[in-house]
Amino acid sequence: MKAIFGILTALLLTPSLASAQDAASQPAAPSAQQAASAEWWREAKFGMFIHWGLYAEPARGEWVMNSERIPIAEYKKLGANFNPVKFNAAEWVAVAKAAGMKYITITSKHHDGFALFDSAVSDFNLVDATPFKRDVIKELSEASAKEGIKFGVYYSHAQDWSHPGGSMAPRGYWDSAQIKGKEAFETYLRTISIPQLKEVIKIAKPSHIWFDTPIGMDAGYGREIVQAIRSVKPDTLLNSRLLYHGKQVEALKPDQLAELKDVGVDFLSYRDCTIPAETFPGWKWETCMTLNGAWGFNKRDQSWKSPTEVVMMLSHVASKGGNFLLNFGPTAEGEIPPAGVAVVKQVGDWLRVNGEAIYGTYASDLKKTGALESGPGVNADGSMKAAGGKRQAHATPKFDWLATARPAAPGGPAKIYLHVFKWPAGQLEVKGITGKVGKAYLLSNKSTPLMFSQKDGVFSVTLPKNAPDPVASVVCLEWASGN
Ligand code: GLC
């Protein structure tokens, strides 16, 4: 009761609220600044997701507070022991860089309500509630800027188990301090969520904000949040989970998409651990994936994906024109698990040779990607089934090859990149290449042309006996001039 009274008083005393609500009724028109900031996103393709917070301490994943029904006061006690002395912002950014990742998205506050930044709105944060006392969002933002890595924050705007009113989820209540109902939710939104978003924007100057689990959200609340964010930093890119869960995205109707755009959402976040079958034309999109089977650190999970699996997923996403956000769950000491670092370092090595086939590319017209080896968790069309359980996240489709494209640019011809995972004996045959190819070569050996022919709609290229790269070798096809 005391808590509600406190919040209501704060609400009445907040002068900016009435104006925020007036502004919220106006559509958020995309500015020139926003359009310009969108370019980096398309170029980037590969990002580092980081799930980190107090939950790293029990080391049973980021949902531990909810799944084990831990009372708020009990959960908060974890703060006293949370002292990630091994945390080093430059080292984390170096891992992203070595992996060939171009941006970072970190949980500035997950559903447990614990913020990784210095918040005046709530003491439940790394600076005020732990012996560590450092603002890692600020440190990471600065370290990223130094290295030319874009820095964005995940913020759980509509699910918060520690602040009253923060969850309207059916399984969202197990502590009497978690006040139920719409009114409490609105109060939470306006006294915790929106003010903290403004704080984190000032601290992190994020290139993008990643919302999640929009329980109880609607377009009206969405507009209120967007206005608040854009009043501080207009070029912040925003994801669709402001209003829709990942699992809803594939089935969005044209009017829902139009509304999302009107509210000010910039990119679609598809269902967790899933590469969609089809995507919506005209929309930037991203899909996120675990590197093992968990988001937040789980000490029992050692099921790391292999470098080849990661590259195949990245190629798959790029072949459909999207971005791939790959997750790490650092430990309570502040360390990114070395086994995961080892995997992505190899991905980075691959990208250093073959990055031209990923960064800044477009979906390929060769819609029918290479012969597909389906398996459990894979739909007939090669899309991945929803990751209902942790195991399914590993059941990814395997392709013989995948394709990305690059349009002609001043001084450069249009190109198609064939990412070959299953090295054929002698010839690789591809149907559906309609233009005239002028040149073919391996990205790992650009100066040696490959022999090829084009007959009856079949492009056929002669390859060396052995695959130059055990992960995937990329054949680049350059359009002949006058195409
Ligand atoms: C889900 C989960 C969350 C995780 C997220 C990653 O929405 O609630 O724990 O952060 O997926 O996309």
Topology of this structure?
Elements: H1 2-13, H2 16-24, H3 32-44, E1 46-50, H4 64-67, H5 72-76, H6 89-98, E2 103-109, H7 126-129, H8 136-147, E3 150-155, H9 182-204, E4 208-211, H10 219-232, E5 237-238, H11 246-249, H12 254-263, E6 267-269, E7 284-290, H13 307-319, E8 323-328, H14 338-354, E9 362-363, E10 372-373, E11 398-399, E12 401-406, E13 415-420, E14 427-431, E15 437-442, E16 445-449, E17 452-455, E18 458-462, E19 473-479
Parallel strand pairs: 1-2, 1-8, 2-3, 3-4, 4-5, 6-7, 7-8
Antiparallel strand pairs: 9-12, 10-11, 12-13, 13-19, 14-18, 15-16, 15-19, 17-18
Helix pairs in contact: 1-9, 2-10, 6-8, 6-14, 9-10, 13-14
The structure holds alpha-D-glucopyranose (GLC).
Bound ligand species:
alpha-D-glucopyranose
Query: Care to count the β-strands?
Result: 19
pLDDT below 50 for ≥5 consecutive residues: which ranges? 1-29, 387-394
Largest sheet: 8 strands, parallel
- Give the helix proportion (percent range): 25-40%
Mean of all residue-level pLDDT scores: 89
What is the alpha-carbon Rg in Å? 23 Å
